[in-house]
Amino acid sequence: MTTIIKSGQCSMLNRQSKGKIHYDITLNQSGERFIRLTKSTGGGFLSQDDIAESDISACLLAIKGNSHFSSTIFNPLFIGKSANNAAFLAAVLRAEHVISKSKTHLYKHTVLNLDALALLKPAK
Asked: For residue 65, what are the CA distances in angstroms to 31, 53, 61, 112, 113?
């Protein structure tokens, strides 16, 4: 069982899209945090898998230095086969200040703050 500690929405990565990605950040009884994509208002299917903060961190720790990376590094985290999952998760991670937009590549990212998700406190 998990408890929602934050619900949010963020813009999609494509600036021309008017849609939003809705998501929950949850906490289980062991204190582990998860991100769950819940809805896309701009079209596009998504998988509502619980993605562990530790798995996201492991993906990001594999990035060498300040290297740019694409959203596809998150593909292995999803059981569902929607092609949108990785980019939608990247949009959420940008909104949560975990990653940021690359200064040189439109749809690539750089690691900003690996601890940003862990710093979230349960809502009161």
From this structure: 29, 20, 9, 11, 13
- Say how far apart CA 68 and CA 85 lie, in whole Å: 19
In a domain, 61, yes or no: yes
- Do 27 and 36 contact (CB within 8 A), yes or no? no
* Residue 33, domain member (yes or no): yes
Containing domain of residue 80, as a range? 2-111
Residue 99 lies in a domain: yes
119 CB contacts (<8 Å, ≥6 apart)? none
| Domains contained in the chain, number | 1
pLDDT digits (tens, 9 = 90+) for 78-100: 987 688 999 999 999 999 999 99
Residues 6+ apart with CB under 8 A from 124: none
Structure tokens at 53: 């903060």
Domain assignment of residue 26, yes or no: yes
pTM: 0.91
